[in-house]
DNA sequence: CCGTCGATTGACCGATCAGTCAGTCGGTCG
DNA sequence: CGACCGACTGACTGATCGGTCAATCGACGG
């Protein structure tokens, strides 16, 4: 029975991983459930044995990854040892390294879910919002400590920070910028430096 | 004949405007061509008289708006009278006011085209890129003049700037932030101030 | 008036695809 | 060994929807 359920989980995982690859390559709307089954080397019907429907597969891909991001954001936010810059760098690094490790997952999360104001985006509205709130809280805390200037609304700063990261990932997804390890490290540095230090010459 | 062709253009426009409303409300992938025809008060087949296919309708909605944006960006970039802050504010104001005036158009442009790394996004890759390049050029010029610090790559700064705007619009589209005229003006101010001045306390 | 031609109509066709389901297989337990 | 049960299969169905096209309308010129 333990073997059975372990084998089950492996099959489920195989289907999920196949779905990520297929969604990333052809887009959720332009792939067929049979593509997922073929990619996983599994019969068509088995997808429906493990998942309610096609939407549920995408939901799970998204929630799995976004959940990890939320943990990192909320953990960084609560850490009293870190400066705002360090907290923001930590969050940005996690997202950017998620891309380095699994670009397909991040592409699906961003392109197929986060950015769809209709359909999927709307369904996960609250979960996405939690991430933005966490980042805004990092800014708000730092403002209260006098570390960051108080005249920019934290929610606004959070939106720009997150928007910046998303656009960086999008450039990588499009293949418009290189995304080698060094590029990724520099992207985090530049993002934090731009937002905190500002572009103005000294 | 003049009347005829004017009437033609009006019908075409009516279909295009109907399509914008329908795309914004239900999303390109989840609406039917018959929805567009119904919304325009026109027979199904007439859509195909004026447009090659469903994709072509979306293409035109996108290109029409993005073309205006490109003009503003490239004009601002070339204006020797303006500071970098003024140029960025000009671009941001145009985009933000485009949203104020026609939120549905901007929603379609961003959600249905710009953010689709697959399918549509790929087709308009070069056009989208021209916008990013223009913004990057504004930064590069200012760096050459010593107005902005030289150690952040211009293309990178442009990406963060554009990503910030897009995320602001997305928040408005989701209804997560108010988008009244005052909010819009402040959004531009805060964005430029954040990017140029930086968040660090003085 | 009538012929021409583009605008307009909407029924229809064909392709696609999500989801179903009747059945097979193979391991486990009594 | 046989009954049971859940994993697994994939052909099939029903619905959706993009795109076609033959027919009609109506303005205009001759």
UniProtKB/TrEMBL annotation, chains A, B:
The keyword Methyltransferase does not apply. Residues 32-51 bind DNA. Keywords: DNA-binding. It comes from the Bacteria. Residues 9-69 form the HTH tetR-type domain. Coiled coil: none annotated. SUPFAM superfamilies: Homeodomain-like (SSF46689), Tetracyclin repressor-like, C-terminal domain (SSF48498). InterPro entries: Homeodomain-like_sf, HTH-type_TetR-like_transc_reg, HTH_TetR, Tet_transcr_reg_TetR-rel_C_sf, Tscrpt_reg_YsiA_C. This is TetR/AcrR family transcriptional regulator. The keyword DNA-binding applies.
